[in-house]
Write a structure and sequence with these properties.
With about 325 residues, the protein is α/β, with parallel strands linked by helices. Helix content is about 40%, strand content about 20%. It is built from 10 helices and 11 strands. Helix 2 runs parallel beside helix 3, helix 7 runs parallel beside helix 9 and helix 9 packs across helix 10.
Length: about 325
């Protein structure tokens, strides 16, 4: 049985110890697909309130949002404090529960290059100053990063482990239009290649089960993403949560979620065509609360992973 090359294995091989990603949510960050710059309402599957912060330290930032044209940031010190508090709490828990020894600070929620350069530099530098932090992983959109930011990350990458995560989702522009993505596939391709040329590690997010996509289309997206030179991949099934445009489509019968059998088959085929050097960060996704409308098989992650391993075992693989 061949073990799939995972992100954890990559980090352990490189640093010799357990390295964990510390997911951070910085208030004041949003998305050009939400604030009206490229579209309104966000992607059809995105519940815009799902990233809202509620801690006392950041309540006053509610309603404050940055973008690439922001000329000032009166809340930068509070954002830096928020970063410190979150990292401290999460990294301590990971060290205790999972014996993590080093960390990547993962700027996770919303679009984490969608702010003035000075704000980004302050946050990235602060994150890299924490004890036992070996690098950054930055979740963003390909239409929300500037050459100035990319150049700075390129400098950091000479001495630190720097990852940038792009939501690819699909290489079909008609699909991207259906989900109100706000950019085309060519834009993602260009910025992935630019990021690689700048010396950054790139993780691509792929979604299986997007509206009207066949398995052939899903696998073509995988094939193209690999060809663009991504170093890591996250696979997601498309699930429906309340308070989204996709939920409206689902409720009126205009969208049918992917079934587990098709997801498993597509996932296995995508992994089989994956280049050996591309590591896997995620094989599924879901949520176990009353916001999930469908499909119900996305509710129990442990059960999902069990079924995924059963499907992989048939082709001699193990996650």
């Amino acid at each position: 049985m061949q073990q799939i090359y995972t992100f954890g294995s990559y980090l352990k091989n490189k640093f010799g110890v357990k390295v964990y990603k510390v997911g951070i949510n910085i208030s004041g960050f949003t998305c050009p697909n939400i604030d009206g710059t490229v579209a309104r309402g966000g992607c059809t599957f995105c519940e815009n309130d799902s990233f809202s912060a509620s801690t006392d330290e950041v309540k006053e930032l509610k309603g404050f949002h940055l973008n690439l044209d922001s000329t000032e940031n009166p809340f930068l010190e509070k954002q830096l404090k928020q970063l410190e508090l979150q990292f401290d709490a999460i990294s301590k828990r990971q060290a205790q529960e999972y014996k993590a020894e080093k960390f990547l600070v993962y700027f996770q929620s919303f679009t984490n290059t969608y702010a003035p350069f000075e704000t980004l530099k302050a946050l990235y530098d602060k994150a890299l100053s924490f004890e036992n932090v070996v690098g950054l992983s930055i979740g963003t959109r390909s239409d929300s990063i500037t050459d100035e930011t990319l150049e700075y990350l390129s400098k950091l990458a000479k001495t630190k482990e720097i990852w940038i995560e792009f939501g690819i989702q699909s290489v079909y522009d008609e699909t991207l239009e259906k989900i109100n993505r706000g950019h085309d596939a060519q834009n993602v391709k260009e910025w992935i290649i630019k990021s690689k040329d700048a010396g950054l590690n790139v993780c691509g997010h792929l979604i299986f089960g997007l509206p009207d996509e066949t398995q052939e289309m899903m696998l073509e997206t995988s094939k193209e993403a690999y060809a663009w030179g991504i170093d890591s991949v996250k696979y997601h099934p498309l699930y429906v949560v309340k308070k989204t445009a996709l939920a409206n489509d689902f409720m009126r019968g205009a969208f049918t979620p992917i079934n587990e059998e098709l997801y498993l088959e597509t996932l296995v085929k995508s992994i089989q065509m994956k280049p050996e050097n591309v590591n896997v960060q995620r094989v599924t996704a879901g949520i176990d609360d009353d916001s999930l409308l469908a499909p119900q098989w996305c509710r129990n992650k442990n059960q999902q992973v069990k079924h995924i391993n059963a499907a992989l075992k048939k082709v001699g693989l193990k996650y």
